Amino acid sequence: EAGVAQSPRYKIIEKRQSVAFWCNPISGHATLYWYQQILGQGPKLLIQFQNNGVVDDSQLPKDRFSAERLKGVDSTLKIQPAKLEDSAVYLCASSLNSNQPQHFGDGTRLSIL
Amino acid sequence: DAKTTQPTSMDCAEGRAANLPCNHSTISGNEYVYWYRQIHSQGPQYIIHGLKNNETNEMASLIITEDRKSSTLILPHATLRDTAVYYCIVRVSGSARQLTFGSGTQLTVLP
């Protein structure tokens, strides 16, 4: 089966600019997650969707980050405006449901200048 | 979710078994032990999980002590491609809560 697809693979922007990441989960997976991974650390959850509804966004910096999964399939994560500390890899994961193991994409590496 | 403790790094000779330990002394009765690994420049990859019985799949074996306060992930015949950061995570299965990743163990398989 095809894995979790993410794009772009790399992105370089200047601080205060906006950026968007796209994720297409494994077909049929109802649960979708966005994680942020800062260099040298483990991934940290930003937001979790169940179909098109948000389950947990408690760690999402809502003043600058937003995410949507309008049709319950693919998802976008946006940062506006970006700060230097947002430099990280943004990982998307999906699972059949919250009871099943998560499958991760290879992420988008964001660099803020 | 219970906290886990893992060594920062380990080396293993190619072809030998790699044994990665994890301490989770505060684990609750309904919490599972999950293992993921992350190869450089890739996303984390699910390896195996278990509650109290030992588990084995095509990738690895998971040995959980009887008191469930620690576990060991075993890669029976390590290859260079097994070089990665290995994460031990404790989580209630079926919970809507996310995986909480620590810093993991950097396993380096040496030729």
Please give a structural write-up.
The complex is a heterodimer of chains A (113) and B (111). Chain A has 113 residues and is an all-beta fold. Chain A is built from no helices and 11 strands. Chain A has strands spanning 5-7, 10-13, 19-24, 31-37, 44-50, 53-56, 65-68, 75-79, 88-95, 103-104, 108-112. In chain A, β7 and β8 form a beta hairpin. Chain A is globular, with a radius of gyration of 13 Å. The N and C termini of chain A lie far apart (37 Å). The model of chain B has no long low-confidence stretch (mean pLDDT 92). Chain B has no helices and 9 strands. Chain B is mostly beta strands. Helix content of chain B is 0%, strand content 47%. At the A-B interface, β5 and β10 of A face β4 of B.
Major beta sheet of chain B, specifics? 5 strands, mixed
Q: Biggest interface and which pair forms it?
A: A-B, 23 and 21 residues
Percent of residues in helices of chain A comes to: under 10%
Shape of chain B: globular
* Overall body shape of chain A: globular
The CA-CA distance between the termini of chain A, in Å, is 37 Å
Provide the gyration radius of chain A in Å: 13 Å
What order do the SSEs of chain A take from the amino end to the carboxyl end, as H and E?
A: EEEEEEEEEEE
Tally of DSSP β-strands of chain B: 9
Tally of DSSP helical segments of chain B: 0
Q: Please, what is the average pLDDT of chain A?
A: 94
Intertermini distance of chain B: 37 Å
Poorly predicted tracts of residues of chain A: none
The largest sheet of chain A is: 7 strands, mixed
